[in-house]
Design brief:
The chain is 6% helix and 33% strand. It is mainly beta and 300 residues long. Among the domains are: 80 residues, SH3 type barrels (Roll); 119 residues, Immunoglobulin-like (Sandwich). The termini are far apart.
Length: 300
């Protein structure tokens, strides 16, 4: 009986010890979880519907890129053929010509050729070609006698690259001077007798009736009564009235009328004497051909 009581007392003491707060067991408590068995049955996977996105492309304008590096230029030796690509077409440079004074236009590059027109200051014409000396230039004829003609470069001013003007065959056939006369023509009338300080002379009125400008003049007056001769030659047309200062016309233009010019002076009064007057007018300075000549007889 005594042992039974001791056993009961021990059980009660153990129960009270477990329920006392702050009293930890002497060994680590291991929690035991119940694990469900794995289902090893084969499962079938059925994929869902596939959603394919729709792509709408956007057009992007590509800007051509310019190389930043400097291209290398290769010199082609003179006479070599460039095989790198087609040869570019060279656009002719325009060369133009003007003159500072009226200039004859001829059938060839020389004064021995026919005059078929003239070029006046203020008119600009294109240059078609040049002769071998580059002293004459081939231009469209301002007149209707020929399509083209030659002008000297003596009074000419050219603009543009003259070295690119091509050479042109001379063309035309020089003809005798006599055939040039129709292009040079004029009429002359007396313009009155003048006197100053014992000198006496005649003035003349000239009209250009030809096809080109008149540049130089020669006047020869012969007094047949006294058998004396006086003459004057100039590259312009001087006019002296009484004792006034002398004036000049550089040339006589086309269709000009009543351009006045003075003749040579005499140191005596030749009035009422028999006078023969020969006037020669030319289209170039220095009485160079072509020229035309007129004769007037007074008191004959």
């Amino acid at each position: 009986m005594k042992r039974f009581n001791v056993f009961i007392a021990m059980i009660i003491f153990a129960s009270l010890a477990c329920s006392l707060p702050g009293t930890a067991p002497s060994e680590e408590v291991v929690a035991t979880a119940t694990i469900a068995p794995v289902d090893t049955a084969t499962r079938t996977f059925t994929p869902g519907p596939t959603n394919t996105p729709t792509y709408t492309p956007t057009l992007v304008q590509i800007t051509q890129r310019v190389p930043s590096e400097t291209p290398t230029l290769t010199d082609t030796p003179l006479g070599a053929t460039n095989t790198a690509g087609p040869t570019p077409t060279l656009t002719p440079f325009l060369v133009e010509l003007t003159v500072s004074r009226p200039t004859n236009c001829r059938t060839g590059p020389g004064k021995e050729y026919d005059v078929v027109g003239s070029l006046v200051p203020g008119v600009t014409v294109p240059v078609i070609g040049r002769d071998g000396t580059s002293q004459y230039w081939y231009i469209p004829n301002p007149y209707v006698f020929t399509d083209y003609c030659w002008v000297t470069g003596e009074y000419a001013t050219l603009t543009g690259p003259q070295f690119l003007v091509p050479l042109v065959e001379k063309g035309g056939t020089p003809t005798p001077t006599s055939t040039l006369t129709p292009f040079i023509d004029f009429t002359v009338k007396l313009g009155g007798k003048q006197t100053c300080d014992g000198s006496h002379w005649l003035n003349f009125n000239i009209a250009n009736t030809g096809k080109t400008f008149l540049q130089s003049v020669s006047i020869v007056m012969t007094d047949k009564t006294k058998n004396t001769t006086r003459s004057t030659t100039t590259d312009n047309f001087p006019l002296l009235i009484s004792c006034n200062p002398m004036s000049f016309d550089d040339q006589i233009s086309l269709s000009d009328s009543d351009v006045r010019v003075s003749g040579p002076k005499f140191d005596y009064n030749f009035q009422n004497n028999k006078i023969s007057i020969t006037m020669k007018i030319c289209a170039a300075d220095g009485l160079q051909e072509p020229c035309a000549t007129k004769t007037i007889n007074l008191n004959q």
